[in-house]
Structures are given as C-alpha cells and as structure tokens.
Amino acid sequence: MLIIYALVGSKMERRQLGKATDIRDLLSTISGTFPRRTRSKRKLKLKNAISKPMKKLDTNDFEFYIENLWRDFSDDKRNSFTYLDSLWYSLYTKESSKAKVLEWIKRKHIFSKKYIFVPIVLWSHWSLLIFCHFGESLQSRTRTPCMLLLDSLQKADPKRLEPGIRKFVLDIYKSEKRLEKKDIIYRIPLLVPKVPQQKNGEECGSFVLYYIKLFVESAPENFSIFEGYPYFMKEDWFNHEGFESFFEKLNSSCRRKL
Q1: How confident is the model at residue 252, as a pLDDT?
Q2: Does the pLDDT of residue 213 top 90, yes or no?
Q3: pTM of the model
Q4: Burial class (CB in 10 A: 0-12, 13-18, 19+), 134
Q5: Residue 82: is its pLDDT beyond 90?
Q6: Per residue in 23-81, pLDDT tens?
Q7: Fewer C-beta neighbours within 10 Å, C or N terminus of the chain?
Q8: What is the CA radius of gyration of the chain?
C-alpha cells in the first residue's frame, strides 16, 4: 500500500492509494503546489515497523529513512547530490500527472548537481537510477554525462526500464529548455553495473537506500565512463552483513529522532 500526502489549498490531506500502477488523476487535486510529505502521523506506525528492517518498504517508509539518512551527510555532499521523491517516476508514467512531475523536477535544479538519485518503484520492485554530470557537455571525457541503473534483482532484467527512462530524460531536458538535440540526449549512456544482489523478495527498497549511502560516500569528483568505470560498483562492493549492519544503525538513528 502506498501513501501520499497532497497539499490541497492550505490544508494537508491524507490520501491512500492502492497499488503504484493504479495512481490516477492524483494531481487534479493539487493546485500546482510542490508536494511535501508529513511524518507526524507516521510515527506510531514506524515505531512498530522499525524493528523489522528487512520488511518490504513502501514509499512512505522509504521517504522517512532517506530523510534521516540525508541529514547525516555533510553540507558539501548535499550540495553536490540531490534525490527525487520516490513517487515521482511512477507518477510521471501517468499522462495526467506527467507535466506536474516535470515542473517539480525543475525546482530541484538537477543540472547544477553532480549526481541525482531517482528511486524507481514499479511492479512492486525498487531500483535506483542515478544521473551523473547532467550539467556537463555530452562530449566530456572526464565528467561524462551518463546514467547508472542499480538493481538488486538482475534477473528481473533492469534493461526493460530503458525505453521509459530515455523518454523521461528527454522530457526533463525539454522542460528545462536545454539546447541539446534529441539524438544527442538519446545517446547518453545507460549503464547497468553488476552490484550485490538481494537474498529475498523483501529487500529491494532497503538495498536502494544502501546503494545511495555508499555511492554518496565513494563517488569520484569526476565520473568518467572512459577511465575508472565501474569504480566501486561491483558484485563484491559490499557483503550482506554490511548491509544488515547499515540498516540496524539507520533504525537506531531513526528511533532516537522519533
């Protein structure tokens, strides 16, 4: 079950949506306002659920965790990185909400950032898209504009997302009135490094959080697909014990902040 908070006029209204694939006409209730979530009514739920870190995360849980994780990064890191709300990509796939999502993304100023995290949740599975150096020249060899798709379930064929991702990126460039031509934008490399894999059907959202943490800590100043790739993003990037330890520490930190 996904839960989204929509700001309607001056009143925060809680809306409960069924499955991600059933989100329809959500934005007809939003009067052009940048969506913000609230945590106050989620505390009791998270206090009960937080002791089970390997449960499958919904978007509300994910946003709670990433907000807490993000606060622990340095100012320099937060200035170089940003992330999109975990519902935005799935909302973009709906014609009724596409324009609003693109408007929200414009307010994130992604072309001034080195790296942008785009959590994707489709078909009840989480993966992580990363935009690298989108503000740089597409001809650069030292700061290569490219996309990384990190998936903890490679057998699900993450490349099946490529057509939708490329349309998404093209629309972002258009909405920002960038000068790059369509054929150039479509040549931005989409890379799928072989990263550590989940052990069950519940961990994908948690893996996305861990990918984000480790990527922020280890990403090079200049990301190049010609020199250094795949860098640290390999099958032995981390072990499952390290992943479990990360989530235990994150849970402990979240408890202290509730």
Answers
A1: 87
A2: yes
A3: 0.83
A4: buried
A5: yes
A6: 434 444 344 556 655 544 444 355 444 434 467 899 999 999 999 999 999 999 999 99
A7: N
A8: 18
**Which residue, among 59, 163, 36, 184, has the nearest Cα to 107 in the 3D structure?**
36
Q: Which of 5-9, 60-64, 131-135, 184-188 has the lowest mean pLDDT?
A: 5-9
| Pair of tokens at residue 194 | 């072989």
The position carrying tokens 């150039």 is 184
Q: Checking DSSP bridges between strand 146-150 and strand 190-191, what pairing results, if any?
A: parallel
Beta carbons within 8 Å of 81's beta carbon, 6+ residues apart: 73, 113, 114, 115, 116, 117, 216, 219
Terminal-to-terminal C-alpha distance of the chain? 22
Tell me the average pLDDT across 205-227. 95
- 13 pairs with which residues across the strands? 6
Question: CA-CA distance, 226 to 248, in Å (whole number)?
Answer: 37
Does the N-terminal peptide bond of residue 230 adopt cis geometry, omega within 30 degrees of 0?
Answer: yes
Whose CA is closest to 251, among 46, 104, 29, 81? Answer: 46
